[in-house]
Amino acid sequence: AAAAAAAAETEREAVAAAAAGGWRYSPPGEARRLARHTGAVLTHTHADFDSLGAAVALARLRDHRAGEPCTCVVMPDGANPTLARFLALHKNYYPLRSARAVGASERRWVGVVDAQRRDRLGECATWLDEAAAVAVYDHHPDSTGNLGPGGKKGRDDVDFHISELGSATSVVMRELRAEGVAVTPQDATLFALGIHTDTGSLAYECTTLEDVRALEYCVAHGASQRAIADFVKPHTSPVQQEVIGKALRGAEHVTHNGCRVASVHVPVGEYLPGMAHVATSLLELSGSDVFLLAVSYMHGRKAPYRHVSLIGRVRAGVGAVDLNKLLEPLNGGGHAAAAAASFRMDTPFDDPALAGTNSVEFVLGLLVRRLCEEQVPPMKVARDIMIPAEQVTTLSPTSAVSEAGRVLRRMGLRALPVVSEHDTVVGVVSVTEVDEALARGEGELQVKSVMRLKGLVAPGTDLLELEHMVVERAVGMLPVVECVEDPKRHRMLGIVTRTDVVRHHEYYQSQSRGTEAS
Predict the structure, then answer these.
(1) By C-alpha distance, which of 242, 240, 251, 245 is closest to 273?
(2) Which of 404, 425, 408 has the alpha carbon at shortest distance from 478?
(3) Cα→Cα distances 145→118, 162, 168, 171, Å
């Protein structure tokens, strides 16, 4: 009786939320009926965080209603650069499929998020003509859409969920929250990034209470603040952009034990606010692990002196660096990953190493040397983080594509190494290649016909190079072999996966070691 009463109360809350928001509430029975077909959710072309966040949220909501995973997400024409960088490390956490890998039978139901026009769906717009049911979720009520009645090739039966909220992710999450759908920390992080980027971290005028509640739900479900800080990008003023340009052109770069440190002194005409955001932006734009920004100006008329604001930022995951300790001799302070100091160049320094200097560049150089010599630990390499070969499932080049698909699904993996009869690595086959081959009806082909080999690494390859390969080559698995240069010595010692690289960043510290090859 108590369970029935609780269920009834949950449904009453969901109906009230629907009435208040102007969207249609689907009772559980109807939701299950609508979800009886496998389906796909489309983002708009050149997807951003909000579009993908809304798409994944809708896929999770539909799967919850169906009681089983039956919905994939498709980005018709890729992603913007920041989202692409995020997905290079995270895409194995989400039900992403390429458009070519989704057969006609898998798109009987089609969802569209953050868009109401066919031209924003690229070549996937034709899916709307073939689907048995179409649902649209957007946060632009005044959008001049053409998906419904009145539009060219529009449909009369589109299920619209349109609300004037700050983000499309919040529109979907209102239903997701009403139905109590549990989400993973990785889902919550993506949803939070969608809300942050489209609401300016809740600062834009379009932000509503529903956006705040959606973001609260993300935090409650373990959204990674480290990941959000690493990938969200706030607004930059013209003055800040000018300083950023000067800093990028004049920065000096040092790499020590794989840690990339950049420093620069930018003289300006007067005090400029907002330099902390500039330092954060420079950290991302420069591709550095640590960035030290010194901004100075001349102050005073009778006895002018140079005033210096020194701001430091550390990229998420670089846990050994402590900027608070580094800037203590300059009477600075803050946190390990974000600290600042303010001082006058005409005032003697307490630090003997700085005695008598009147050069900001000298101060920066000393700080960089101390950071490298005293704080940066030895760089981890492939052998430190790889999954040993004896724990890795492999395929033969002559295995059938259909068999590879069965193994990948049974083990919940995204990719598997292909090893010859001589125990040498000859390729890697991923779920994408397998799905696309199966969609073409080529399940009997041998794995060697679809496998790829985008990179091999030696046991001593450092993490900096491993991450570069994962991001730049879009590689989800890197076999570790005895000798990269000699094909006869490609005996596999282990594998490094995208998940292993993500784990190094410590975005999700509670994540346990697994063998997912993604």
Answers:
(1) 240
(2) 425
(3) 8, 11, 15, 17
Spatial strand order of the sheet with 477-481 comes to 387-388, 492-497, 477-481
DSSP tag of 424: B
| Rounded-to-integer distance, Cα 425 and Cα 420, Å | 6
User: For the chain, how many residues are written?
Assistant: 518
Percent helix, strand and coil across the chain, each to the nearest 5: 45, 20, 40
Residue 468 has a CB neighbour count (10 Å cut-off) of 12
Sequential pLDDT tens for the chain (518 residues):
665 665 566 566 656 655 554 444 555 555 444 445 689 999 998 898 999 999 999 999 999 999 989 999 999 988 877 788 899 999 999 999 999 999 998 999 999 999 888 888 999 999 999 999 999 999 877 556 788 776 667 788 899 999 989 899 999 999 999 999 989 999 999 999 999 988 878 876 678 999 999 999 999 999 999 999 989 865 677 888 999 999 999 999 999 988 899 999 999 999 887 788 899 889 989 989 999 999 999 988 888 999 999 999 988 667 788 998 999 889 777 667 878 888 999 888 888 999 888 899 999 999 999 999 999 988 889 999 999 999 999 999 999 999 999 999 999 999 999 999 888 999 999 999 999 999 999 999 999 999 999 999 999 998 888 988 998 888 889 999 998 888 888 999 999 999 998 887 777 754 444 444 44
- Which residue reads 């798109």 in tokens? 107
Token pair recorded at residue 43: 């983002």
Q: Which helix (H) or strand (E) holds 159?
A: strand 159-162
Question: Residue 410 burial (CB < 10 Å; 0-12/13-18/19+)?
Answer: exposed
Which single residue is written with the structure tokens 């809304």?
54
Return the DSSP state at 208: -
Burial (Cβ within 10 Å: 0-12, 13-18, ≥19) of residue 348: exposed
Which residue has 């992603």 as its token pair?
A: 79
Burial class of residue 107 in the structure, from the number of CB atoms within 10 Å of its CB (0-12 exposed, 13-18 middle, 19+ buried): buried
The answer to whether 499 and 415 have CB atoms below 8 angstroms apart is: no
Token representation of residue 503: 């784990």
Judge residue 137's burial from the number of C-beta atoms within 10 Å of its C-beta, 0-12 exposed, 13-18 middle, 19 or more buried. Answer: buried
Residue 513 burial (CB count, 10 A): 9
Q: What is the DSSP string of 25-87?
A: ---HHHHHHHTSS-EEEEPPSSB-HHHHHHHHHHHHHHHHHHTS--EEEE-TT-B-HHHHHHH
CA distance 355 to 253: 25
Is-contact 156 148, C-beta < 8 A? yes
